[in-house]
Design goal:
4-stranded antiparallel sheet, signal, Nitrite reductase, metal-binding, Cytochrome Bc1 Complex, Chain D, domain 2
Length: 542
């Protein structure tokens, strides 16, 4: 066995690992890479692969990529999988990586995984920055625009968030954030606690663990008011109902951090490492989804690998009360039912939708669905037969599963499948609006461009697909993530320029929600993915 030491300049750009380096061991029969190729492959793995397969490559939504598994497949087979994807929900990467990069990545995943360092509360606090002092926050909007119909848009690979005026369709500003922002959330109306100026402040979390605070009342040049860093890799964030705290969850290190919502100063860190539902200790127990319970003074923290839901009471941080609710692996995205009581979340590897009763703080139900459910921000609507229902797309199959979610008014239909809608390809996001007759689903996970670039729309009453919309036909681009405007009259769909990720050649296509006809295209965006309408999100319009 030999020990190889590498510097960490490349991965430091992505996850902030100390420049002092670390040691990794490679077995004698493992493939090898030059130092430069190793660093590049390590960075690409972190940016594109770790989310599904894990930092330590033990697998989650994606399969285990530890050497004992990858060495069996061999170099040629691994290169094909990376290049062309799989029918099980993995994207093709032949349009993003060169053949040499694919070959190096295939070699890298046959080598022993490097282990990143931990992060202390003191280290987090050292990253906290103030750009606008709270005493200088304006008492009213300074720009004269309808900020409640703003869209906050992730420009993923640009490391930016765009603010777009939903009325004029003009880009208000581009805000520097961290690498690959995954989610942006703002203050929301709450049944128990009440924040000031609901919808005004928004918080980003990226795949470098960086948190940004955005003030939509500022002039465009001053909307970024504070930032900090709470992990090397992270995925979700939420704001307490009273607007006092922000919580974010780490992929690495495995922890969640509660911050002061005004200053972003980290206040408390809690490890999520522990035992899964089978009694196995999990070191890389990543925080997948974090939401604020609309009716309770608590956060909902989903720990991906353990299958444990944590309900965290934020009313007393010094004596933090955490209720652990066992469910199923691997927890991912979730959303609340219209009442705000029940949290519905995908356990993708178990092919289940998990339902948690946040009032009683217990597991309510687990619904069997198809391969790798992924609802994103989800969708709730009313069905003629089943009453209130919710739905999810799937990473592993072209299908929308719909279940009843009203145990009070429709107990016979609650937490049971109502119907399914077959789509042309596996998808990531599903959306609707209370004023709309239709449900929209993307097909991002299908490897064929024609399907990947199209979204499908089905009728709430007939359950039939009424239209397949080809959003773009440009090579290297994909259609994803639908969002309605404030009154539900428009649907916005992102065109993600995956191949040309360094230039503002992405766009958002706006459709009439009733006629399903294209209205306009908002250009000048770099890799737009998720987008969030201020009014809808602040008022829980799912």
């Amino acid at each position: 066995m030999k020990t190889i030491k590498y510097g960490l300049s490349a991965i430091s750009l992505a996850i902030g690992i100390a420049a002092s380096g670390f040691s990794i061991s490679t077995l004698a029969n493992e493939p090898t890479l030059s130092k430069a190729d190793y660093e590049q492959a390590k960075l690409q793995y972190f940016q594109r692969c770790a989310g599904c397969h894990g930092t330590l490559r033990k697998g989650a939504t994606g399969k285990s990529l530890e050497p004992e598994e990858t060495l069996k497949k061999g170099q040629t087979r691994l290169e094909k999988i990376i290049a062309y994807g799989t029918e099980g929900g993995m994207n093709n990467f032949d349009d993003l990586f060169t053949k040499e990069e694919i070959a190096n990545l295939a070699t890298f995943i046959q080598m022993t995984p490097p282990v990143p360092p931990e992060m202390s509360l003191e280290q987090m606090r050292s990253h906290t920055k103030e750009y606008v002092a709270p005493k200088d926050y304006p008492s009213k909007p300074l720009h004269g625009l309808n900020w409640e119909n703003f869209f906050v848009v992730i420009e993923r690979d640009a490391g930016k968030a765009a603010i777009i005026d939903g009325d004029t369709k003009k880009i208000v500003t581009h805000i520097d954030t961290g690498y690959a922002v995954h989610v942006i959330k703002g203050t929301e109306h709450h049944k128990v606690d009440h924040a000031k100026d609901v919808g005004r402040f928004w918080y980003t979390i990226g795949r470098d663990g960086k948190v940004n605070k955005i003030d939509l009342w500022q002039t465009p040049d001053k909307m970024l008011v504070a930032e900090t860093k709470m992990a090397y890799d992270a995925r979700d964030i939420a704001v307490s109902g009273d607007g006092k705290y922000v919580i974010a969850g780490g992929y690495w290190p495995a922890h969640f951090v509660i911050m002061d919502a005004v200053t972003l100063n980290p206040l408390k860190v809690v490890s999520t490492r522990g035992y899964n539902t089978k009694g196995e200790f999990i070191n890389e127990a990543r925080v997948a989804a974090i939401y604020t319970a609309p009716n309770e003074s608590s956060f909902i923290v989903a720990v991906k690998e353990t299958g444990q839901m944590l309900q965290v009471d934020y009313s007393d941080l010094d004596n933090l009360t955490i209720t652990t609710i066992a469910s199923a692996e691997f927890l991912h995205d979730g959303f609340f039912d219209p009442s705000g009581r029940y949290f519905q979340i995908a356990a993708n590897a178990s092919n289940k939708m998990v339902v948690v009763d946040t009032k009683e703080r217990k597991l309510e139900a687990m619904i069997d669905v198809e391969s790798l459910p992924h609802p994103g921000p989800g969708a709730n609507w009313v069905d003629k037969k089943c009453g209130p229902v919710a739905g999810t797309t799937h990473l592993g199959v072209g299908l929308v599963s719909v279940w009843g979610n009203d145990p009070i008014g429709h107990p016979d239909q609650a937490w049971k499948l109502c119907y399914e809608v077959e789509t042309d390809g596996a998808g990531v996001f599903i959306r609707t609006h209370e004023t709309s007759q239709y449900v929209w689903a993307d097909q991002l996970k299908h490897p064929e461009p024609e399907i990947q670039q199209s979204v499908q729309v089905f009728d709430k009453n007939t359950h039939e697909i009424v239209k397949t919309i080809r959003v773009t036909e440009e090579e290297g681009k994909a259609a994803l993530h639908m969002e309605f405007n404030d009154d539900g009259s428009e649907v916005w769909v992102s065109v993600w320029n995956r191949k040309d990720a360094r230039n503002p050649t992405g766009e958002i296509v706006v459709y009439d929600a009733k006629t399903l006809k294209e209205k306009t295209r908002i250009k000048g965006l770099t890799t737009p993915t998720g987008k969030f309408n201020v009014f809808n999100r602040a008022n829980h319009k799912t």
